[in-house]
Design brief:
32% of the residues lie in helices and 22% in strands. It is built from eight helices and nine strands.
Length: 266
């Protein structure tokens, strides 16, 4: 005798189909685009010639204007690098430019680096060559305040922190230190070849740098916006066009987003 499908059974099947279809549509629906939390973004930064200028020009500030909506008002706070990080950690600004992974444990970092510091060592040309981190391990070293290059190079004998590149160079000349750890591009942008006469500058290691955001609701929203739009502009080629306009602006390769591991549930 054939089976007769009852009305309640048919209704249950229909509801199950509708529920499954809705779940499938929800799973395939793209995630909503992040929202900008405010029309004004407070940004702390050091002064880096060619990258962050007092008149609002420079590669990094151009990048900010490309990432954020055109009606966003950038409130720029120019100060030392160490002070910039502290301002963001204490929530006095929304973000800080050019933070390495070793610079702060309190800030939210962009998912992808946007440039690379070129860590170099400056020393008297009459000294033996210093071209590896190992060759620095027994020397008296100076470094810029707030730049954790000793951590990156895995050395622990940094003797002095200086507030300016000029001071670091003078300490090397006067033999108060044996060498000065410094960012190569920044050094060359602030001093002339004549300033470096009799000195040797050797590249040691590249270090990725990120945008840093305050660890609060506003900072989290800004980070989400930044990550989403940086990735989009990278893939559509607009970032490459921007970076080509500025010498020494290094566009890091965007690593693919890691997918979740396959489920082992049977």
């Amino acid at each position: 005798m054939g089976t007769v499908t009852t009305l309640p059974s048919m209704l249950c099947c229909f509801l199950l189909f509708v529920s499954s279809s809705g779940a499938l549509l929800a799973a395939t629906k793209p995630a909503p685009e992040p929202m900008m939390p405010a029309n004004a973004v407070h940004v702390a930064t050091d002064l880096w010639p060619g990258f962050t200028e007092l008149d609002g020009e420079g590669a990094y500030l151009h990048l900010l204007r490309l990432i954020f909506p055109v009606d966003t008002r950038l409130e720029l706070h120019f100060t030392s690098f160490s002070r910039s990080i502290l301002m963001a950690e204490q929530h006095h600004v929304d973000m800080v430019i050019g933070v390495a992974a070793t610079d702060s444990q309190q800030l939210l970092l962009s998912s992808h680096p946007f440039d690379e510091d070129e860590i170099a060592v400056l020393y008297l040309a009459s000294q033996p060559a210093l071209d590896t981190a190992g060759s620095l391990s027994t020397l008296r070293l100076a470094t810029q305040r707030g730049y954790n290059y000793a951590l990156v190079l895995n050395i622990d004998n940094t003797s002095y922190e200086v507030d300016s590149i000029r001071t670091g160079v003078d300490m090397v000349r006067n033999q108060r230190v044996d060498a000065f750890l410094v960012e190569k591009t920044e050094l060359r942008s602030k001093l002339t070849p004549e300033d470096l006469t009799g000195l040797e500058l050797r590249f040691l290691k590249g270090e990725p740098i990120f945008m840093g955001f305050s660890n609060n609701a506003s900072g989290q929203a800004l980070k989400q916006w930044w990550d989403d739009h940086y990735s989009k502009l990278y893939h559509n080629g607009q970032l490459a066009l921007l970076y080509q306009q500025y010498p020494n602006f290094i566009l890091p390769e965007l690593a693919p987003t890691k997918s979740a591991p396959p489920s082992t549930t049977q």
